[in-house]
Amino acid sequence: MLVTLADDARFMQRALELAERGAGQVAPNPLVGAVVVREGVVVGEGWHARYGSDHAEVMALHEAGAAAHGATVYVTLEPCHHEGKTPPCTRALLAAGVARVVYAVPDPNPTAAGGAAALRAQHVEVTGGVLERAARDQNAPFLHAMRDTALPFVTLKLALSIDGALVDASRTRAWLTGSESRRAVHTLRAGADAIAVGIGTALADDPALTVREGPAPRVTPRRVVFDRHARLPLTSALVQSARQVPVTVLCDNAVANHARDARVRALTDHGVQIVTAGSLPESLACLRAEGVGHLMVEGGATIASALMAAGLVHRLITFHAPVILGAGALPAFAALPAQTVDAAPRLRVIARREHGPDLMTTYAVSGD
Question: What DSSP string describes 208-245?
Fold first, then answer.
């Protein structure tokens, strides 16, 4: 049967869809999906469902059974070629007798890489780079962690009005987006290592910053507050739950280095971790050193503008509600330097999706 580029793309797209089922369960491993196809018919599907469990290829081959012999396997990441928590996927593919392997992204992990060459050496036809851009977007935090151990991958999430405001002129706390968008945000939170806000948002909204909808993440994300002067109230939801779910407050050296500072001492006594840094990049570096590979920042305007201005954001996710807030409303990026239309960078749109009446858009800001 003649296989076309369109066929390869179609089956790889299905593998990408399957990979999403592991969201929140596989980090620090990547999301991976696999599809086994024989004579144009899907005979097996799989995905990496949980850290330490079978890889996507093994799951798909198991479902395919004997039909995998002579079949083509589509996988979103080059099959691994090392003995880790599970045996190498190349071994399983060769044992199943597959004829062809198609992958999207080469494995950037030097320990696991080399699967494509190993398969070719055993006379398996291998094709790489199918839907590579989409696969890189799906696993951008993982790919970032493979090449940059100094700073976390930063996703900035904002709920906005049509006219780009975070809150109306009264500054009254209210839900801007609908319940469907809020459920989507909890899914995003589950895929991050930490959820952060600025102290302005912490004071105005008293957020919990937990994952309360959808499947529980394998590892609960820590909560982070950018709080230069350690103003987070002891009565806040974050402080009151700090012994159940970790909370980190990032503040200035000048504040935290004073051992007698009652605010810092009181927060520490309540189980809050105090991290000191002299700048925003230093703050992010401290989080990375604490094991935060993917940081999701949920506002507000001050921290959003500061991160964008410093070039520290990799993905921007906006949820636009179908409302116009008008004069006096708080713009998300009012603190950014002015740009002319010609000079302003055009962000690449990765995806757009409707959640009820709201529109979610994911933009690539920097990095992959």
Answer: -----SSSPPSSPPEEEEE-TT----TTSHHHHTTTTS
SS3 69: coil
For residues 132 and 305, give the distance between their C-alpha atoms in angstroms, rounded to a whole number. 31
CB 255 within 8 A of CB 226: no
DSSP-derived 3-state class of residue 250: strand
Enter the DSSP assignment of 265: H
Residue 142 sits at φ, ψ, to 5 deg, of -65, -45
* Residues with active-site annotation: 57
Proportion of the chain in helix, strand, coil states, percent, rounded to 5: 30, 25, 45
Q: Which residues contact 212 (CB under 8 A, 6 or more apart)?
A: 186
Amino acid at residue number 216: A
* Residue 101 host element (H or E): strand 100-105
| Tens-binned pLDDT, residue by residue, of the chain (368 aa) | 667 889 999 999 999 999 999 999 999 999 999 999 999 999 999 999 999 899 999 999 999 999 999 999 999 999 998 777 778 999 999 999 999 999 999 999 888 789 999 999 999 999 999 999 999 999 999 999 998 889 999 999 999 999 999 999 998 888 999 999 999 999 999 999 999 999 999 999 999 999 999 889 999 999 999 999 999 999 999 999 999 999 999 998 766 565 557 889 999 999 999 999 989 999 999 999 999 999 999 988 999 999 999 999 999 999 999 999 999 999 999 889 999 999 999 999 999 999 999 999 999 998 66
Calpha distance 210→218 (Å, rounded)? 13
Evaluate whether 46 touches 33 at the Cβ level (below 8 Å).
yes
- Cα–Cα distances in Å, from 353 out to 138, 196, 320, 357? 15, 24, 11, 10
How many angstroms separate the CA atoms of 323 and 331, rounded? 14
Number of Cβ atoms within 10 Å of the Cβ of 120? 12
User: Residue written as tokens 């398969």?
Assistant: 119
337 secondary structure, DSSP code: P
